[in-house]
Amino acid sequence: EGHLSLLQAGIFGLVGGVLVAMVMTGRARRRATLGLIAGVAGAALALLLSGLGWFKAPGIGLVNTGPWAVPAGLLGMALIGGAGCWALAFLLNGPRHRAARRAVIVVAGLGVAAYYPLQFVFVGANLGRIVLCVAALGLTGAVVGYLLGGDDRVTVARSGALAGLLVALLAVADRIMRAWPSYMADPRVRGRAIATTGAVTPNLKGSIWLHGLDIATHLFLPTMVLVMIGFAAYTRFERAAMLEVLNSDYVRTARAKGLDERVVVLRHAFRSALIPLATLVPYDIAGMIGGAVIVENVFAWESVGTFFKRSLESGDVNGVMSVVLLSALTVVLCNIVVDLLYAWLDPRIKVAT
Length: 353
Description:
By secondary structure, this protein is an all-alpha fold. It is built from 14 helices and no strands.
């Protein structure tokens, strides 16, 4: 119904606080204190959003209906976009890179300035117009980063481009969320917040934002199932790779040069530690093309796995061979992508032509 009770908000805060306490490092007392603060703040935020009706009409702002919708959206874009861009610069370039911070702050300001005009651009928009707007903000961010980058123009331009894409995607996500009341009011949806079967709602009519929201609600559960299958293995592989890389000579050299610890971890160690994942993930993606039969059956998705199963049951050799050929082509393409990723992640590896 779009309203949280005190018990539900407490459960939300408890889960969030436990997760924060598990993620944080340090002594048990410090972790418990941070978890308690995060839990209380999460419960209070949930109650505030519920009182303002945010769950009935979500968006990037606290209030998304009435005359205060646009000012609240501007404030939300400024707060969330600014914090996200600053965190991006902090993670990619470290806390001492002033040029990167200046660039992403300017890009965040441009995103806030573009928020109101984008509301008119998004009216009656199609996929091409949306992609063009996102690409334009990303390119603008790259130009701003290049102009403000000083001696490190390429790195700052990359951070500016990512910041531009971030604020553009925030604006797109806000517009999709604003379609939530219309989506829930449609009789074909029948009040289901998260769809459990099918790829789309049959005979659903509306804008591209309504259909995008419909696709997202149908993708949520199958995507979560497929992601959780390999998530534990990926984390263990990455942990083992990071432990090995952090003890290598070039990481000790980077620390001896006085680089910030976050720069050492993210730019030097984490990049090399991604090589095992770069080997595993593309092949898992290729395997999911024809290997997600159980997930497709459970969630009533008509995709390659279901087609392969039906071809086997009916003895359709052409159908079976087409799926096998598609899987083989995907594996070949994944091999090429993995080789290119190796060369990008590890400077010691060169791709010769």
